[in-house]
Amino acid sequence: MAPHPEPAAMEEEALSIEFRRPGEMPGHHWHRQVEVNIPLDGPVHYLIGERRITLPAGHVGLFWGLIPHRLVDQGGCERMAILNIPLPLFLGFALDEALQSRLLQGQVIVSDRAHLFGEGDIRRWQQDAGHRQPHFAALLQEEIALMCRRVALTGWHSLQPEQGAVPLPTLSPERANKLHQMIAFMSCHYREGLKVAQVAQAARLHPNYAMQLFRQVMGASIKQYLLTLQINHARVLLAESRRPVQDIALSCGFSSQSRFYDAFGRLTGLTPLQYRRQSRGEE
Which of 27, 53, 149, 276 keeps 20 to 30 A from 239, CA to CA? Predict the structure, then answer.
């Protein structure tokens, strides 16, 4: 297999939703998001690594985009949903741990039941993704989380691609569990001004190893990920409340308002007040 370019960094990734006719791909590609495919009116056929896999019509398929993948036969399918979910967001959905672990190990997850979701659901997700207001972004994330939970609760099975097909080392169950522990701990405590050592301790790892594992898989440092969690929370508070900026900064874990302004500007390109006005359609 030909070498692949580096996948995009975590901060460049976003939840995306397409609904279109699937197209055959000339070669494998890969990325860091979790990919969800739902072919509505016909099966589709992939090469996941070097193994041919068929996703039946109406079933939900999930896999980690780090596995080189290629759609090789659209199988008569004319309508398919293609979702790309940032891995940190997916791991925050509080799903079945076995499902998340197997996905991180490079397995393909397929729903046991067909037609859990229809075109109307997908069109609504698309509309919410197109809104600029944070309210709709939060609503969309909740609906995608519910979609994944429905797959987990109604039954699923996994398919294992060939060994050696993943460009980065596949995660062992132990490494996948450690990564999950770190992300879960940060998701609960990011407003407390966490240090890297605290995150590593939550997973019972040496800080240097924790940083290496996290960056290798997530494409960003632990500090960058914590900052992203803090700023995303601040965005919601700015859009949905009239709380003073200083109050929001402190409640999101920043030690001072100046640090908050600096971080917010670097990640969004706006000041907090500009973001508040823009999210409310005031400019």
Answer: 149
Q: Scan for tokens 């039946």, then name that residue.
A: 56
- Say which residue the tokens 């700023």 belong to: 231
pLDDT tens-digit readout, 70-93:
899 998 899 999 999 988 788 778
Length in residues, the chain? 283
Write out pLDDT tens, residues 126-138: 988 887 777 788 7
Q: How far apart are CA 267 and CA 223, in angstroms?
A: 13
CB 155 within 8 A of CB 182: no
SS (H, E, C) the chain: CCCCCCCCCHHHCCCEEEEECCCCCCCCECCCCEEEEEECCCCEEEEECCEEEEECCCCCEEEECCCCEEEEECCCCCCEEEEEECHHHHHCCCCCHHHHHHHHCCCEEEECCCCCCCHHHHHHHHHHHHCCCHHHHHHHHHHHHHHHHHHHHHCEEEECCCCCCCCCCCCCHHHHHHHHHHHHHHHHHHHHCCCHHHHHHHCCCCHHHHHHHHHHHHCCCHHHHHHHHHHHHHHHHHHHCCCCHHHHHHHCCCCCHHHHHHHHHHHHCCCHHHHHHHHCCCC
Between CA 218 and CA 246 the distance in angstroms is 31
In order of their start, the domains of the chain are: 10-159 (2.60.120.280), 173-279 (1.10.10.60)
Place of tokens 């407003």: 191
